[in-house]
Amino acid sequence: MSLLNLSKPILFLALLASLASLTLGFQSRKLTELYPPQPDLLTYHNGAVLRGDIPISILWYGQFTSAQKAIISDFILSLTANRQAPNPSVAQWWNTIDQFYLSKAVKSNGPKYTNILLANQTIDDKCSLGKSLTLSQISQLAAKTGPRKGGIALVFTAQDVTVEGFCMSRCGLHGSNKRNGYSYIWVGNSVTQCPGQCSWPFHKPIYGPQTPALLPPNADVGIDGMVINLASMIAGAVSNPFGDGFYQGPKEAPLEAATACTGVYGKGAFSGYAGNLLVDTTTGASYNANGAHGRKYLVPALFDPATSTCITLV
């Protein structure tokens, strides 16, 4: 299935702050608000991107069921091209990131491929730092995963764990440790805290048009919402890992590969409407990408810098 263009991308504001020697990209998702395009385009700022073999390390913070972990882990595995799934697929979405961004920045003697490797997983189900986390503690937890240079540490927090700014200004964030050369991502389960903000369109929005919620493809509103936010953050983490890669607007509040198209998932999307999506004939769930092990997912549109349009899978 060919990729489709959306000529009027829906934009949202991002927040960014600094913590000691760490660079953090704070993303907020106000899904039912439209923001006018910024005058400067999403461009390359001559910095590093992540390419080649990208090892992924995961920390599960708090209580997650085996089924919930499998949904997210299968999504990560779906990013690898050798995980065969019919198009439209998560691998096809990932290849678009490589085409639009990573391949444009790589040096002639650098890697010509991008491969996601699931390196290791750590469980902290007792919540060693408590259930109310600051942003500096997120970076501490990321370091506990043992991230490798050129890799990404993923920190997932359970539904009863609060994080500074969660629901109020962000659904997830990506940042980096420049000294050790790795990026990290945090995404929280919003199902009991703010599903209308961070799990839309699988929950009615907290404001704006009150369109019916869509059925999530993996039958878990919170986890399917986490996948959407993880996809947005990983697109930013690989294309703008240290704050000098691909972004639009001020460096302190950038729009990136996926966050420049927030709320767009299919052709015809507009405020409060995710677009024309595929529907599972058995479950009635909405999705736009096939994944590993027969999974289905909803992934965000990607901004095409060459045409200044949002590109969707369906």
UniProtKB/TrEMBL annotation:
Localization annotation: Secreted, Extracellular space, Apoplast
Superkingdom in the source lineage: Eukaryota
Keyword line: Apoplast, Secreted, Signal
Cellular component, GO annotation: apoplast
Endpoints of the signal sequence: 1-25
Coiled-coil portions: none
The keyword Signal appears for this protein: yes
InterPro entries: EXORDIUM-like (IPR006766)
Family stated for the protein in its record: Belongs to the EXORDIUM family.
Name this polypeptide is given: Protein EXORDIUM
